[in-house]
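Tokenise the fold.
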Amino acid sequence: MTDISLDEAWNVLRDDDQAVLIDVRTAAEWTFVGVPDLSSIGRELRTVEWSRFPGGAPNPNFLTEATNGIDPSRPVLLLCRSGARSAAATAALTNNGFTAARNVVAGFEGDLDATGHRHGGWKDQLPWRQS
């Protein structure tokens, strides 16, 4: 499995028209926290839950939903809140033949600081929107 930084992820998405970004957080996170906005580079975000909310049960259809219509050789970048769920999702894709799956390590919100706030993720550095 290969990790990718936020800057590298943005450059891949901007420069490679075959690249796909999949946000693996929950529908609640997409709705209430926000999502990456790829409109400035003419791209669309794919959203597929890795685990279900509430309860955190694994999404039994993750592989089918995430990979529908994607050639296994295309660059697939996976993003979650802080990089943990997307690391597991990246491993799942890699184990199923996706040769260019990469985990966006900073995630959408980043890591917790000493005061319990998240910083350093997509939301701090790259375009995003809320519904």
